[in-house]
Structures are given as C-alpha cells and as structure tokens.
Design goal:
The structure is a homodimer. Chain A is an alpha/beta fold. In chain A, about 40% of the residues lie in helices and about 15% in strands. Chain A is elongated, with a radius of gyration of 26 Å.
Chain lengths: ~400, ~400
Amino acid sequence: MSDPRIAAAAPLAGLRIVEISSFVAAPLAGMTLAQLGAEVIRVDPVGGAADRNRWPLTEDGTSIYWAGLNKGKRSFVADLRSPEGQHLVARLITGSGPQGGILLTNTTGRDWQGYNALARVRPDLIHLEITGRGDGSTGVDYTVNAATGFPLVTGPPGHRGPVNHVVPVWDIACGLYAALAITAAVRRREATGAGSRLAIPLEDVALATASNLGFLGEAQLTGTERPRVGNALYGSYGQDFTSADGVCFMLVTLTPRHFRDLVSVTDTAEVVSALATALDADFADEGTRYRHREVLTAVFAGWFRTHSAEEIAAALSDTSILWERYRTFGELATDPRVTANPLFTDLQQPGLGTYRAAGAPISVDGTYPPARVAPQLGQHTDAVLRDDLGLTDADIARLHDTAPGATKRTNR
Amino acid sequence: MSDPRIAAAAPLAGLRIVEISSFVAAPLAGMTLAQLGAEVIRVDPVGGAADRNRWPLTEDGTSIYWAGLNKGKRSFVADLRSPEGQHLVARLITGSGPQGGILLTNTTGRDWQGYNALARVRPDLIHLEITGRGDGSTGVDYTVNAATGFPLVTGPPGHRGPVNHVVPVWDIACGLYAALAITAAVRRREATGAGSRLAIPLEDVALATASNLGFLGEAQLTGTERPRVGNALYGSYGQDFTSADGVCFMLVTLTPRHFRDLVSVTDTAEVVSALATALDADFADEGTRYRHREVLTAVFAGWFRTHSAEEIAAALSDTSILWERYRTFGELATDPRVTANPLFTDLQQPGLGTYRAAGAPISVDGTYPPARVAPQLGQHTDAVLRDDLGLTDADIARLHDTAPGATKRTNR
C-alpha cells in the first residue's frame, strides 16, 4: 500500500491543477496547492492578466507581488479570446489522466471554462470558482471589507470614519478556503470517482468569518454595537505601550497568571490592589480587566515610559506575559525571524534577484520544504503544448506564426 | 467505485478527528473540517478551556464567541491532568478505525498527547500542532501581528504608532492552513497508509503572508519602507469618500474602464483631463493613478460631498466601478446579505436562542450546506465513553463518582 511517490512533505503529489487567475485569492490558492506538491499550471492571456505589473515593483518594473504569489507554478500563455486558445486550455483542464481534471479560477462568465462545458468532456471534473459576491455581482477585498462592520471598529478610538485593513484578509482566507475545498474534493473523488462543482464568493468568506467570531451574533442577540477600542483586545486585557525611547510594544494577558506577571513587572501591585478594592473588581476575571482597561493602562504606562525598549524586552522575557515589539517591514526583513528562520529560502528569482522568500508555513517532521521560484510569464507554454497537449513542433511553430502572440513563445 | 456515503457537500465524511483546542485558530480549523463532513470531537478540561467564557457574551453570560467557533462538533470533557483522563483521550485519538487517528491541537508541551506517545500506538497517526512561534515560544494573533510590519502601515496617514487589526487575521489564516494540511495528509494516508507529523507556528503564517504579498520582498529588494496611506489602495486607485449625509463609501478602480467610469459618474472629465496634461500623467496606468491619488481624490470628493448616499449608490450601480458603502455590524445583521443570504441558517442554538449563523462559505452545486449548532460543554461525553471507548454503564458511573468532575456528566 505504501506509495513512495507521495512524500509527507508533498501530500498532493500527482495532482495536476489548472489555474486561470489574477490578483490574490485564486493565485494564493494555486500556490498553496503547489507548495503541497501538486503540479499547478497558471494560465494567462497574452501579455499577462490585470495583475501582471502590480505593485510593489523593483526599480526596473518587475512585480515583486506577482513573484510572491506564483511561486512553484508552471506558466502557460494563450490567446483566451480566440476559439483555438480556449480549446487548448479546455483540453489542458480535461486531459491529463485521473489526477487531472481540476480547474481553479476567479474569472467567471466565460462559458468555455464553465463547469457545464468542461464536465461534458470530463465527468469527474473538480471545478472551483472564486467570485465576488454570492449574487454574482463584483467584489474585491477592500469593498467586501467595507460591507462588513470591521472598518468602523478598527483604528484609534477618536477616529471618525472607516479604517481599512492594509492586509487583504478576505483574499487570504478565500484563497485558503479554496485550496481546502479542492483538496477535500480530491479526497472524495479518489474514493468515489465523482467530481465537484464548487464556488466561493469572497464576500461570503468575510460574512462567515464575522459570524464565526461572534460579531454578527452579538449584533443580533444583544442589540449592542461593538465599540472602537483602538489597540485594546476586546473582552480581555491587551494593550500597546510606548517605551522611553519611543518603541511600541503589544502586551496581551489572557490568564490570571499573565496579569499577575504584568502587575509584578511594572511594580504596580499596591496601586492595582487598591484599585481592585475601590472598584470592587476581581482582575483575575478577563471581562473585568477589559471593563477597567483604561485605568489599568494608565497605571501600567508609567513603567513603560520610564524604561528603554531594551530594558522592557529583558524584563518581559522573564515573565509569562504574551508580548512583542512593533517593527517596520524593513526592520522585520533583517530580523532573525526572517534571516534565521527555516520557513525562508534564499531564492534566486529571475527578474528580481536573490531574496529570502517563504514557503508554506506547514512544517513536516520538523522541517520546512524549500520555497520554489515563480515562473517567467509563459515560460512553460511550449513544454505544455508538446508534453501535455501532444502538439508536434510543427503545430507549435504554426501557432506562433499564424497568430502572433496567440501563444507566448517561451522566454519572450 | 461509487461510495454514496461521501456526498459532494460532505467530502470529508467518515473521518474522525479529535481536537484539543482553545481560542481561534485550532477551533476554526476543527469547525471547518466538521463543515466539510468530518466528525470532530472537541476535548475540553473540566469546566472548559480558557476560551469558555470569551466575549462577546449574551446578557446571561453565554459565550457567543464559543458558539460561533464550535458549530457542528461533539464535546467531550475529561480531567486532562489525571492519568486516567489522559489515557481515555489518547485512546480516543488512536482508536476508531482507519479513518480515525487524527489529532488537531494548540496545546503543546504535554507528552501524553504528543506525536511520539500517540504514534507508538497508532503508526499512521496524523498529528497537527498549532504553535505560537517557530522556536516554540509563545505568540498570539495580536503579538504576532506586532512582529510583522502591518500595524505601522495601517490606519490614517497622520497617525503615530501602531494600529492593530480587530479581526484576528493570523488566527484565521492559521486555522485554514491547519484544516488544509490535515485534509492533504488524509489524502496521502488514504493512498499510502502513512501518517504525518505537522506543525504550524502562528507567527510563520504571518511571515509567510508578508512574504507572499511582496511586503518583505519590497523591503529586501528596494530598501524602501512601505508608507502609511490610510484607506487608499496601494499601487492602484482606491479610496474612501463621504456623502453629503455622512455615509462613507469605498471605491476601487483596478482597470482603465473602472477609472473612466469614475471620472464620468463624478462629472470631472475636464478637470481630470487637464490634470493629466499638466502632470504629464497617463491615468490608464495603475501606478500613475496611485502616485497622483491625493489630487485625484480631491477632485472626485466634491461630487460625493454634494450628493446623498442614496444618489451615490444609484449612480455607482450603473457603472463598472467596484464600490461598497461602509456599515456597522448592527446594520449588517439586518442587511439582505445576511437576512436573505443562503450562507446563513436560522440556527436554534441552545444557550443563545435563535440567530442567523453562517456555515462554510463553500457552495456545492450552487447550494450551501446548513450551519449546525454548537454543542453544550461535555454534551457528548457519556456517548463517546460508551460508543467510541467501549465503557460500560458501570464504568461510566464509576468515573463520575470516584472522580467528581473528572468527566462531565452529560447535560450538567
């Protein structure tokens, strides 16, 4: 029963997935499946999709963004507006044996790549569409986020108006749900022979999360509006503090022990005890700590204000308190948690140069599989035409000649 | 080959997963696997884990949070500090046939539930640990987020200091990576018979994401620090605007067509054209729109300021522009995207009452499986002892009597 071709670090080895994608969610899903061992062919139109040159860029205009989200894939370019190009891609999806027949896409409304057209040829097709909203209308991370309540409860308490997340949280979650849904559908197909028709609306990812975390339940069941509490941790005691030398720290106390350690390290036992008595408050209770967070914060802040970042870090390290110092991306890039973290590989990425790039954050038997380079656009077009689609060299040459740009010649 | 027991909407049917968990990431992973059809038994210590009474709460103190993150699971309570309780849970993990032997946990440092101890009994064990940081030290969402650069680039441009996410983005991503890793490991085990030892550090989820999205690459390759740009969309044109009646809207223009529509709907063609000439700027280019976002925003804002939210919504709906109006959780809870969205089920949740709760945001053949209620703490203890562990009624009674609270009697 042992199949040495499926290593623990590549549990999806053997699968062949076609990805017709752009932006974040679908490419992240495809990349994650590639990181787990699947062969993933990203299909782009001639010249690339709308995300081809998305910022951030290197000085010579190469997209660092694109390289980051397409690691480990093969790249196939075709004229997706021509019947011939569509037919090639459709064959790519439906061909390739029992472990093929899988499409991941965030382009919708194109019949030729829709479930019905493809399943006619490949009855056990696994077809996953990432869409904007459940009713079929458009939505992207920043607009979907606006539809939730999060922007109006994020940011400094005095702020008026919404505060957007810079990190596209819904794209990330959507991409991971998509990778999961495909993997589960594969498991089912390998047991039953049946395919699946799946869809994940980005907005529903956000709504489901707001539901899972209790935000919507709270609104429905208590009729209260969640307040904006800045950097505080809702319902518990967590807060940011600034050192004498202007460095910010985040502290979180989830347990009574964490809180006792915070009182101890800030040398505020007397004051806190007096407060507890005067307020008739048991600070061992999370909710009580939260209710009195402002006065507690005012009490603790003095110690932070009168110590350097180095002193604070040393003192906190000796406690059970959950804490971290804030930093910029530039500081993070030179921090040991990047430079000495086996999650990262020194990747020689054509178009970018050498940089430390992360693989999937899933360690197997204590080690991380290395990150792999992203392809150049169209890098594998000819190889796919020849090896996966069975075109002869003459066919391939004719494609390049009769429809200039119809397929992107390798390395142009 | 067709196995009618594995429906498309329950691709993980037959699997039996034990979850020893608390807080967000691990419970979300377990719940997502349950939503895909696996049987998930959440194991808690007597009286519940540290998240038992986490806010938000109903007026009578029931955790809406706990109910939201544990939908569809079975609940088993045991004294996890006693050898007898540990032995029962270990047997629960290692027993239950070829589709059992799966542990998902975020409690570490307990030998009895570690990979080595359990794999000795169950060689094909799938064991996944969610940890804080890669080196084994502690980390939670709010501290891990501080370690990344995101808080210092989030929030209003004039703001000094960090702005935390209210939504625990790293917990969410970590939970979904965990569900994916387990599902992929199941696929591999069903092909090979081999188990997997997996770990996902929460901090590495955040670092990998910062890498995937280009933030770390940008810092390494260009030496620039990402600026804080408020609600603007970095590298493109997206901005928030306020209506005459004080309602905020988020607009995103990713393509030249979106931008042309924005110019048209705001009736600013002349001004924008004059600007383009004077600035020698081609606004069809995303990066150019981003560079000149402040003057563009100043030009567009006039139209928003002089129209009501209703007028704006009607006008924008007739364009290709990606847009949304901001709202609170209270407004969202009564919006059709909750009240009329098949993602949501009218759930009669014991302890909370009836409320609309979301299932998994993955539609199968165009429909969503319904959400399922969360268990009461310990609700399934006796049934699991009897049916899964083979204890007799006499054994069960003895457990309850000789170690009061050692196992939680069902419905107490």
